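Quick one - inputs below.
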Amino acid sequence: GENVEQHPSTLSVQEGDSAVIKCTYSDSASNYFPWYKQELGKGPQLIIDIRSNVGEKKDQRIAVTLNKTAKHFSLHITETQPEDSAVYFCAAHSRKGNKLVFGAGTILRVKS
Amino acid sequence: DAMVIQNPRYQVTQFGKPVTLSCSQTLNHNVMYWYQQKSSQAPKLLFHYYDKDFNNEADTPDNFQSRRPNTSFCFLDIRSPGLGDAAMYLCATSRGSGGRTDTQYFGPGTRLTVL
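Output:
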């Protein structure tokens, strides 16, 4: 089945710097890749997603890139702020089983 | 504004005592999911309903059951909770329009403690 690997597991950046989180997936048939932000004690919140017919998508300070050939996708956060501190999960939609497969998560800490 | 609502937010139960967690949605979505999330781990899918069709994950223990009496509500029943079932339980929904893969929207979760 689909397997999603996410790196790094923890990331500390200074306020104002950029943060990049990378994920790789195994199922070449996967066609949908969302990113979720989860704050302590809360449910995951969708922050951005990308479909396989697009290479890049941007929403203000957040961008996602997708390389289908290499089977990896990345989250880019620019001008980080303390409120960006959270756990970030990538996911890939597996057609086998028709479900989302999540990465292990990245703890992002933005230091002010 | 809440679209996926979970009640209660915190639930404490005793070892072996049945417990029910509730999820409701105002989105009129066809699909509802239940995930288990343990500390510092990714959400793990337990099962989902597509309308009234129940889809169980192969590795979901029999101890976990679900009911969906109507479009808006879905329940997670844990028949005999063990200490290992202490976790955050997340409900999610998606439109289920077919063809195009749908975005999943999560509720705030219910934190289950087993004493």
